[in-house]
Sequence to fold (559 residues):
Amino acid sequence: MSAPLLHRWFPFLAWPRPTPALLQGEFWAGMTVGLMLVPQGVAYAALAGMPLVTGIYASLVPALVAVLWSSSTRLGVGPTALTSLLIGASLTGMAEPGSAHWVQLAAWMALLSGLLQLLLGALRFGWLLNLVTSPVLGGFTQAAALLILASQLPALLGLRTTWGALASDPSVHHFDLRALAFGLGSLALLVLARRWRPSFPAAIVVIALAALASWAMGYADADGAVVGHLPSGLPSPYWPGWLPWDELGGLVMPVMVVTLVSFLETASSAKVEHSRGGTRWNENQDLIAHGMAKMSAGLCGSFATSASFSRSAINLYAGAKSGWATLFALLLVLATLLWLTPALYHVPQSVLAAVVVTAVTGLIKPMSMLRLWRISRVETAIGLVTFGLTLATAPRMYWGVLVGLLMNLSHFLYQRLHPRIIEVGLHPDGSLRDRHLWQLAPLAPQVLALRMDAELDFASANALERRVADELAARPDTRHLCLFALPINRIDVTGVEAFVRLHHLLQTHGGTLHVSGLKLPVQRTLESAGALAEGPHLATYRTDAEAIAALQKAAPAPA
Fold:
């Protein structure tokens, strides 16, 4: 088997050969990410409603599978805030959080989402990512960040009751003041550490200090909310068992959105990695790798994973050069699972909430919509609708991104159905410009000169025919129609039929259709259809200058 083929099927074979200098740098980068991965994994498991140890499981085997088969080897793969929130929100009402049935449903979500990504990658459907625009993703992400903050506030503040009970009977007794102190203190330390040095693994340090303080003061023995016992050892193989058809059907929409959102998270990190490295991103290979990673998560009894933008950025910032850094990070996760899980027993849950809150505050960017308003009001409206629906439909918040996607596709289709068609005139600088906008004279008497800035296909053909018919009805003395066709880079069957009808329309008016600057693919298609046979009613030109000279010569002199 040739080396390129081997590298295609086993991308890790293309990694750089390990040298002492390379491994030293990769070790320290891996330790930096690994020290973040364990606390974030436990915290995001709580966000997903899963047993906390499954967050460490999701940080081990899926990350290993992803780095071995991905084209983007420096991504921080594992649990992420957005994906965890989607899982927890989607399963609400279907099972009790943390129960065996909840784990079964989450595992099926990981398996189905991974299988979908694997198929999309194998069929080279990575281009589907282009359907989700920045306003849709931004609106969804910011709404999801607010929902994550709202879900973590009770644990962060040590609230023992509901918000409704607190509002009806405001009292400090509704709060566990020690949990409040742990949560707010940890939050302050994490924020300060992030501003001081983003690459510093502050989360593990804060968690270690909180665990020591909790143990010293006997917080767990006083019924304080702590992480508690986590089983040691590697995850066992897990098969979730078959689900009833109604439950499986209820997972279809959440699985589609988890697939979309998690891979968009991956794309945002992968594009940064490859732009810095000067390489081309292979989105289909990453779809395959992350699909396999999700499936391995489900088969470990864990939940769907993605690429964390923050951990990926820190991996790059710490100087990671290849996938060796991720392997070192996973060795730390492995050591935690084998020997260090008892050390997490006394960690207050309010500290885990502080880790989550710190991670998602960077997703909230209220000024982004204001900047977008200056560029496109329609796309701003789509982003705001996505944002509002995501909040309004929680916990079924996938409706926000689906409606935003539908609105975006509708806007795109509207633009295709209403292409820009202008009548051109000769500008003093020698270029062809919009005649009415620049108040230019016609190219010649009895001449209608049009340019359509779009493909001539099923979406735009009717608009062009309607524009020509309206112009001829308004100006019955027109004898020459010149179509400046340089912007037209594709034509389909409907476009060919429209072209033939335009030719016939000019012929019935006793005039001539002039076509300038046809691109070769369009010309060949028209020639294959027999629509470019030149005669007294059809003329073609290679350049616009040639067409203008012929039109001015053919048109009658003004009286």
Summary: The CA atoms of residues 385 and 404 lie 7 Å apart. The radius of gyration is 31 Å. Residues 20-47 form the longest helix (28 residues). The beta strands are 76-78, 306-308, 421-426, 432-434, 447-452, 480-484, 512-516, 538-541.
